[in-house]
Each structure stands twice: as C-alpha cells, then as structure tokens.
Amino acid sequence: MTTTFKGESFGFLIAGDRTHDFVLPFNRATIPPKTAAAFDNLLAARDAEAKTTGKRGKAADLDANAKVKEALEHLYDVANGTTKSRQQHHAEEYATAASKLNRCLAEAEAALQILVDHAMQAENPTGIGINHTVRNGNGPTTVATLRALADDLATLTPVPALDA
After folding, report:
1. For the chain, which terminal residue's Cβ has fewer other Cβ atoms within 10 angstroms, N or C?
2. CA-wise closest residue to 40 among 12, 14, 71
3. For 60-76, what is each residue's pLDDT tens digit?
4. Longest dimension (CA), the chain
5. What torsion do the CA atoms of 116, 122, 124, 126 make, to the nearest 10 degrees?
6. Residue 13's closest CA among 41, 45, 60?
7. 11 exposed, middle or buried (CB, 10 Å; 0-12, 13-18, 19+)?
8. What is the pTM of this model?
9. For position 155, what pLDDT does the model report?
10. What 3-state class would DSSP assign to 76?
C-alpha cells in the first residue's frame, strides 16, 4: 500500500456562479458524518442533474441546477456550523491513528528482533547461538538487510503533533 496525499477532486458548476472545487480523501470514512452526508446529498443532486440535462427543457435544467446549488449551500452551512466539532473529530482521529502507528512500530521492532535472532543463529549451523562474525556485520545479505531495516526503523521521525 502506498500513502497518498492527493485525494479525489470534485467540481460543481452552478449556473451564473463559479465552479466550486473540493478535494476529499480517498477514504471517505475519515470525513465527519454530517459533512459526509451533506456531500453525498450534493453528489446525488449533481448525478440527478446530469441525468436530466438537455432532456426535459431549459426549465428542468435550471431546476436541477438549483437543486445542486441548494445542496452545495447546505454543505457549506454544515461545514461552517460544525467547525469546532470537525476539528475535534479530526484531532481525536489523528490521536487514535498516531497511537496505532506507534503500537505498530513497536510490534515491527519486536518482529524484527525475532527475525534477526533466527537469521544470525541460522548462519551458525554447527554452533550454538550466534556466530560472532555475523553479529559484527560481516555476515550474509539477509543479516545485512535486517541490520539496514533496524537502522531505518530506529531513525524514523516520530509522529508529529497535529497543527491546530
């Protein structure tokens, strides 16, 4: 899986107005519920408009576009009315994800240690324990790669505090 910072772009054209552009995360579950519901209503209005445009006359086209405008205004109202709760929602979800990442990193370190222990002992087939040549970094590719992984894991930047 690759981490993306791009998101998904949406544009809504209102007759006599500008295009209203939004970029939402691909994982819509991260959007606060009220905002997500308002955005889903906007998408539904736009889809309904697309189905009727040019098929039922100009009055129907204007009516469909008015419904998109109404849904867009509702989205803006929800966003403005829930600013503090949205900030709290994102701060709480960020803290949860940071905790999960830190726990996963600790689990990765523990798993890496097990890999290292077994790889170094496997390189000492006739002896007991770890071959000192392998331990000092002069061993095979597997151990060298594990050492590089350990170094990378040890030098990871900690999860930053959320800018508020």
Report:
1. N
2. 71
3. 888 999 999 999 999 99
4. 87
5. 150
6. 45
7. exposed
8. 0.66
9. 93
10. helix
